[in-house]
What does this fold into?
Amino acid sequence: MTRPETLRSNTQVMNRAALTKRIVGKLHRREAVVGGIGNSNWDLWAADPARPENFYMLGSMGLAAPIALGVALAQPDRRVLALEGDGSLLMQLGCLSTIAARAPRNLVIVVWDNAIYQITGGQPTPAAQSGTDWVAIARASGIAQSHWAADEAEFDALIETALTTDGPHLIAARIDDEPGRSQTDRDPVRFAQAFARAMALPVG
Amino acid sequence: MTTAAPSHWPGEILAAFKAQDVRLVPYVPDNVLRPLIAAIEADPHFTAFPCAREEEAIGIAAGAVMSGMRAACLMQTSGFATLPNALASLVCAFQLPVVMVVSERGTLGEFNPGQAIVCRTMRPILDSMGIEHHTLSRLDECGFQADRALRQAFATRWPACLILSPLLTARPQ
It folds into this structure.
């Protein structure tokens, strides 16, 4: 059964913290989650700071999806998610072609589209000013299974599909301008070592 | 056990990668690296593929090395010069043994002024972050240097950079 295609113009504005909690609530098989710089990370941290399979990047803006690709290639049996902001993805659009070329079945990219650089003062991204469509870009880059989430129910359904069927998958969600709800500890070495230890454990 | 001695520098690098169990090789192509890339892609031990940008390769290697797969990123000097932020905020801050192999352009006969200038930035960038680097200039030493530099990177969880000098890659041997 195919559902009608959701376009960006038909999507509700949702909330990153709430959607991040919904994602983390669905993870029961030691899935890896790579959070992008700033707010994407901080809402991931707020969703479950004790989860060792979360990796909280620091300043390497745009590298959440490439880091997740590396995890996915190293561990093809583990589901790997990248949570990335629209401004961040715009910095590293070429990675969509790289990901499509490798076609990792276990990789899921979630794009948070608030159309602004929220953390630096809410300036609009050039993508927002131009009407750039992340799903269209991802598909044109070769990631066929790329979709906008119309609302929370469709977001849930898309995540379920992405966690249980072959990818790569890309899910884009329009979100509001709320800043991250908390901040991660500033302890990168601990994060890297905890994440590496978690990745050494078998997929649940 | 005896194996045939690699007869040229790509074989020496490839042998060091294998000895240190490097399996993932994301790269941005370069003409000097062409025989190394070809040899790696022809060997089923490795997963090698092109990236759109050097930063991507660093991110991929960072994710892989934290997940139990050792990686080395191949690039040219000018591509290395795009990396300081990713090296500082990801590789060094998280103490990840990401290995870079850089073919050195901009020295010993460079024709392109841009390459000559950017080449002068490479070692100061590496030194400023305390990233171990070795310039490979002799066929009879490069295998030892590569093997030991990689071994130290993985043992000490710190990045390393192998710089392939024209003395190695262009000088008649």
Notes: Chain A has one domain: 12-199. The mean pLDDT of chain A is 96. The radius of gyration of chain A is 15 Å.
